[in-house]
Amino acid sequence: MVQSLDAPLFPGRVLLIYDTCYERRAAKLPDWRWMNTMKTRRLLSAVTLAGSMTTLVASAHFQILVPSTDLAGADTRTVSFDILFTHPMEGGPVMTMGEPVQFGVLAGGEKTDLRETLQPLPIDSQSAYTADYTVKHPGDHVFFLEPAPYWEPAEQKMIIHYTKVVVNAFGEEEGWDAPVGFPVEIEPLVRPYGLWTGNAFRGIVRKHGEPVPFAEIEVEYWNRDQAVAIPADAFITQVIKADANGVFTYVMPRAGWWSFAALVDGDQPMLSPEGGAVGVELGGLIWVRTVDME
To answer: Distance (Å, rounded) from C-alpha 143 to C-alpha 80?
Structure first.
């Protein structure tokens, strides 16, 4: 005997409720054996459901563009970059990168193309890059990267994460909030270097130069060497929303590199490697570093 009813927790679906008493009588089982059978069924159902839910948990992708220092000086004029696409809090896996579309630096109001400095550096048999840059004058240097579109078959969409990081040179602070001009970008409202652990980072999410009300921002810590234990999946990616003016705030609780990824939908679909038109996730990322007080 089966009864159907609307299921408000699962819109558009039907729950099936079984008359277990009728089924027990039909099976001609004694009460004790029937109870054991039902307990086994419930346990198997719970395991199956848990497994299904596990497959729904998607790790956040982050484009890493992290320099060897964010404060260049006389002894650190040459800055080296780690450039890879991965899940930073979980320490991997590394996803393969195509050749970047853009890699450059904005300093003194001028952009310089640095693609020729990119050097392949495979990680776990996946393509990644490194680069070196020697600062030539004081001031803020906004390094930026536009990676090749990445096909994510599990989500059936293309991903492009426009990424930047600011390096100050010789203490002259000018230009740290200069926009690169990406389709989606985070404008920092806090100088993005010289930050103590516990400082708050604030920014405005912009798409085509305009603030994005209530934009979603994903935040992850680069958990190098897995120094931070992750107690549950919910701790991997912090998720916050901007206010009506596109402004968000987050307090960074640990020393190291943090990434803020503002995620929006692309305006036009792209062709997947499978040949079909798919949606596009555009991310505007900025990396900032915090330091402990000694």
So the answer is: 12
Query: pTM score, two decimals?
Result: 0.81
Cα–Cα distances (Å) from 181 to 15, 137, 240, 282, 290, in that order, read 50, 23, 24, 14, 26
Least-confidence region, from 48-62, 96-110, 238-252:
48-62
Q: Which CATH architecture fits 62-291?
A: Sandwich (2.60)
Question: What's the CA gap between 149 and 161, in Å, rounded?
Answer: 8
Within 13 Å of residue 65, how many CA atoms lie on the same side as its CB? 27
Contacts (Cβ under 8 Å, ≥6 apart) of 268: 280
CA atoms within 13 A on the CB side of 67: 30
Q: Where are the domains of the chain?
A: 2-56, 62-291
- What confidence tens digit (pLDDT) does each residue in 68-91 have? 999 999 999 999 999 999 999 999
| Phi/psi of residue 136, nearest 5 degrees | -110, -15
Exposure string (b/e) for 183-206, b if CB count within 10 Å is 16 or more?
bbbbbbeebbbbbeeebebebbbb
The Cβ of residue 125 has, within 10 Å, a number of other Cβ atoms equal to: 7
- Residue 206 Cα to chain centre, angstroms: 17
pLDDT tens figures, 181-233: 999 999 999 999 999 999 999 999 999 999 999 999 999 999 998 999 999 99
**Three-class DSSP category at 135:** coil
Q: 95: which 2 tokens?
A: 């996803």
pLDDT for 118 equals: 98
